[in-house]
């Protein structure tokens, strides 16, 4: 309660107008919207199994040729790489020097040890060293990537099965519904004292990606004798994006994606399978086809990519520092505007979060999503236009970010009610100021 009172005083000092402003939407309307959204979420959760069953039926019965596209699971090279990679990442997780990240939450802040940046850099250097000394082909990952992803899919299924068994026999919890199977029941499950959700994202999704880029460069050089300008530029900006992600691991740990999403089948499959396939798609096309756009286009796409990814990191860092200082952060020389949004926890206790409406977050409500979408669209643009399907991964990421923004806002409306309506009246646009 003292913390809640302190936040109230901070709100009065830093954003007085936020308390006097009122939305044109009545409290009765807010309650009706909250009830409607809660019903919609329940219905959507129940639809998961039907959609999954429909997808499987469509792929394997309606289009039987899909079975012929499944890579061989007995690829010994892919198995060796996957097992060695898993072992190396666990060793690096334990033995490499650690930094400390502050992870903030309403339940209390905690410090966590992080070292994914050093792990990623060292892993890439070891791969290049092994390829340079002839221990294995430099294009090994590129050639066997499909089988590696299939093995990662087996990892995802095995880990989730192990979690279900541990819940049943260890904690007494059981996964009994399709929604619990799909979305999970635990936010940060641990095995051998390793946070599975964070470990898989930082040591598999965002390490297999740079390794694939390096392997694709080897493949392209072996196949065509030289590296195309577009492939070189795209590889450079994607590696910058990946290393920036690892360097800002504290921002990832404080993101909604890390703190809110439980570790279920959906999350494991996305990080082990779907993510690597989508992220590596433009590199795959350029490495296989030797396509290249003009010099000016390459320069423009590099500029857009770098500006958008840096802006995205600045947005996330700005919100992180605002929350770390409990709202005592000046932006442009003045106190930050924010709304102290009160809510009740699952246990019924009163609490409050600060909704930032200044700086980058005063222009639109999801500036990080906008810049993230621009980044992936710019990555895809390096391909030129070989076909519509070549740009589907970037379109998928963009649509996913838009859908997630609407989902986030629905949850905020359910959680904060009138305070969220007030915030939206202050920050009117979702993605682009003056447009949408």
TrEMBL record:
Gene3D superfamilies recorded: 1.20.120.1630
CC annotations in GO: endoplasmic reticulum membrane
EC top class named in words: oxidoreductase
Gene Ontology biological process terms from the UniProt entry: brassinosteroid biosynthetic process; cholesterol biosynthetic process
Biased composition, class Low complexity, residue ranges: 10-23
Protein topology in the membrane: Multi-pass membrane protein
Stated family: Belongs to the ERG4/ERG24 family.
Record protein name field: 7-dehydrocholesterol reductase
